[in-house]
Amino acid sequence: MRQSNLFTKTNKKPPADEDSKNATLLRQAGFIHKEAAGVYSFLPLGKRVRDNIEEIIREEMDAVGGQELDLTALQDQNLWQQTDRWSDEAIDVWFKTALKNGTEMGLATTHEEPIPNMLTHHAESYRDFPVAVYQFQTKFRNELRAKAGIMRGREFLMKDLYSFSRTQKEHDDFYEKMKSAYKRIFARVGIGADTHYTYADGGSFSEFSHEFQTESEAGEDTIYLSTDDDLAVNEEVLSDDVLEKLNLDQDNLQETTAIEVGNIFPLGTKFSKPLGLTYTDKDGQDQPVIMGSYGIGVGRLMGAITEIKASEDNLLWPESVAPFEVHLLRLGDSEDVVAETRTVYKTLQGAGVSVLYDDRNASAGEKFADSDLYGLPFQVIVSEKTENKGKLEVTFRPNTEPAYLELSELIAKLANTQHE
RNA sequence: CGGGGCAUGGUGUAAUUGGCUAACAUACUCCGUUUGGGACGGAGUGAUUCUCGGUUCAAGUCCGAGUGCCCCGACCA
């Protein structure tokens, strides 16, 4: 994309009404726009990042057999009354709204009810199971206090997958597959080393649920990390009993704050029973379906990546999620520089590389400043200098030492550093 | 929901502490010169000082109420 066509602008100063690093930098760079507290719009650059994260998650969900769908945000209160979760006491973050006829509807905070309800109309036989369905869907939560930029908002995009199994064993096997899928996701988006499988409260149907917690001072959770096992325990369930069960020694645990970037949750028959989701077994008998839910807040994950990777002043994107792989800077506007930059731009695009081409008639300093703020993984410079050298100047962030490469060498390098 | 802080052009700030036409930087538009770390000169555009009410000869400034934003706490299916 030509940067001259990008309608968003960077700001010299960060916004004054923002405290979190993620919102401060993402807004200063024009990746997101704030509509209200905890309500952020995604602008072209920000949307590209979020889309990239979404696509990685999608690939991993498809790989474990997930089928993508898209349920509505508007929710019928009758459904939620079946599980006794329509009241504001049961779910205190409900947004509710009235239809013209006076009927109340809710804006979905989760789809633990509607998904199994929908499934009762489609899956009945043991032959129809197991099933795993997922969606990227907007959730609404009327938080008492939104905070931490895009990491705890009132409206946000969430990937939620629900598994439906016939037996506990079938459920357990799938649960393990999801655990691996989540590990791959967090590794692929560049925070694998900082993210830890964490034991957390399991609610009424199982002893534990499991969270993926990314170490960061911006986090709101406290976890106890066992570095030997790359395993952690959320403060909320920490006890001698639990430590013994997990074979952990309190003295070897390290307390740290972390961002919950994902969680997986065994639900048992908590929802399938009241909603009447059963399957008919080979003997013609109805059997309850065993459920699991598996969530990742896509926006929160983007926020977490920002918190982990960005410096105080500049964003920095892992190649796998960057809005563009290459930031191509044209310094000067002499004919040969313009022609050469255009050639590089076209050739990289032809090679399947996403390029943000700064073709503006701006000063070098301004281009560098914007480029640093954007934090794309590769910075490629074409100028009189590089023309004389006959090579491109390439910086691979976060390195600051440039390399001088032929165009063909650059393309080879880009191919090699493609993330798994 | 309890507590604290803040609210002035798109953005970041100032305004003698109640006093003249709300200033500066940046951004934006136009002209010209520039082009390796946010260039320079010139000319412009842009503000109901969050809202409503009050005090006063006079309010961005004081008072009251409300709203919004940020932070701490509680809460977090």
Structural overview:
This protein has twelve helices and 21 strands. It is of the alpha+beta class and 420 residues long. The longest helix has 21 residues. It has a five-stranded mixed beta barrel. Helix 1 crosses helix 8. The relative contact order is 0.13. The protein binds one RNA strand of 77 nucleotides through helix 10.
What would CATH call the architecture of the largest domain?
A: 2-Layer Sandwich
| Topology, number of strands | 21
The separation of the N and C termini measures 25 Å
Mean pLDDT: 93
Q: Which structural class matches the secondary elements? A: alpha+beta
User: How many alpha or pi helices?
Assistant: 12
Q: What's the CATH topology name of the largest domain?
A: BirA Bifunctional Protein, domain 2
CATH superfamily of the largest domain: Bira Bifunctional Protein, Domain 2
Oligomer: single chain
- Highest-level CATH class of the largest domain: Alpha Beta
Spatial shape = elongated
Architecture blueprint of SSEs:
Blueprint: H1 21-28, E1 32-36, E2 39-42, H2 44-63, E3 67-68, E4 74-76, H3 77-82, E5 95-98, E6 104-107, H4 114-119, E7 131-140, E8 155-165, H5 168-188, E9 195-201, E10 208-215, E11 221-226, E12 231-234, H6 240-245, E13 253-268, H7 272-275, E14 278-280, E15 286-288, E16 290-297, H8 298-309, E17 326-330, H9 335-350, E18 355-358, H10 364-374, E19 378-382, H11 384-389, E20 392-396, E21 403-405, H12 407-416
Parallel strand pairs: 3-7, 9-12, 17-18, 17-19
Antiparallel strand pairs: 1-2, 4-6, 5-6, 7-8, 8-16, 9-10, 10-13, 11-12, 11-13, 13-16, 14-15, 19-20, 20-21
This protein binds one RNA strand of 77 nucleotides through residues 9-20, 28, 34, 36-37, 85, 90-93, 109-110, 112, 141, 143-145, 147, 152, 203, 220, 329, 331-334, 361-370, 372, 381, 383-385, 393.
